[in-house]
Fold:
Amino acid sequence: MRKMRTQRAVAILASVLLVGGVAACGNSDTGGGSKDDGKITMGFSQVGAESGWRTANTTSIKESAAAAGIELKFDDAQQKQENQIKAIRNYIQQKVDVIAFSPVVESGWDTVLKEAKDAGIPVILTDRSVDSADKTLYKTFLGSDFVKEGRLAGEWLVEQKKTASGPVNIVELQGNTGAAPANDRKKGFGEAIAVNPNLKIIASQPGDFTRAGGKQVMEQFLKANPKIDVLFAHNDDMGLGALEAITAAGKVPGKDITIITVDAVKDGMQALADGKFNFIAECSPLLGPQLMDLAKKVKAGEEVPARIETEETTFTQEQAKEALPTRKY
Ligand code: GYE
Structure:
């Protein structure tokens, strides 16, 4: 009896949804039941404005949305997960067509992603990913392979130090705790340098991807460790902040301390060309055009690949000098 009642309720609900859906749009709208005027509205929750990379990423997203005729609702979460969750809930209420976001940390998204899914609003992850076991909570993830970036940085160092006869002391400036690029770059770098037991990470701490964070933590590193040979910073900005601390400690960056970073934004590339940095693994922030393409496809109900990787390279000092004049970000 109860089962029959449940079945009937489900049938009624299904027909209501169907009729409602047809009445609302009469086409293949897969968005959150928004009125269909042909225009796509995207709700985007950005991590913050912590670095040159982030600023370039935000510009890319805003410009590409305008170029693609997509109406963009944009929120800056100031590196706080709670702000991102709030923004996503707002977008669900506003019945946007697509939600895109760059998760500040990897964990803790299941509930809000489920809310979006239940509301029928597709979610695209961009730049950073989440660790949710249920992959149906989002349509696709567009961004870099951060483990690879860390590995490329580590492999370069292994090659540089292959003739080192004694210990090479490395300090590491991590991104914000729990962020995918912090976890993954640490992993890739650690795995790559493990081939040479002389290469040792003697200190590793978060500098939150900011210049101020990089400077402050590097000062502590320098105070606590008389011999630092290498700095691996998870982004250019922390490396740039660390330059100040290194110079203030009477050391020459790029000579006394080998500096490796990730991103290759203009200021980082300038430091590399000037001989203050030694190597950069690139991470492209120009994700806007691909993101807008994906939004259109997802809205039209087309299948999209579950993972789309950004193409990237690495730069030595010489290569930075060549690339700088035409660098876009
Ligand atoms: O490397 C860093 C930024 O998530 C790839 O976040 C991004 C990272 C980037 O703050 O500079």
User: Anything to note?
Assistant: Residues 50-51, 53-54, 127-128, 181, 209, 235, 237, 262-263, 283 surround beta-D-fucofuranose (CB under 6 Å). Residues 193 and 256 are 20 Å apart (CA to CA).
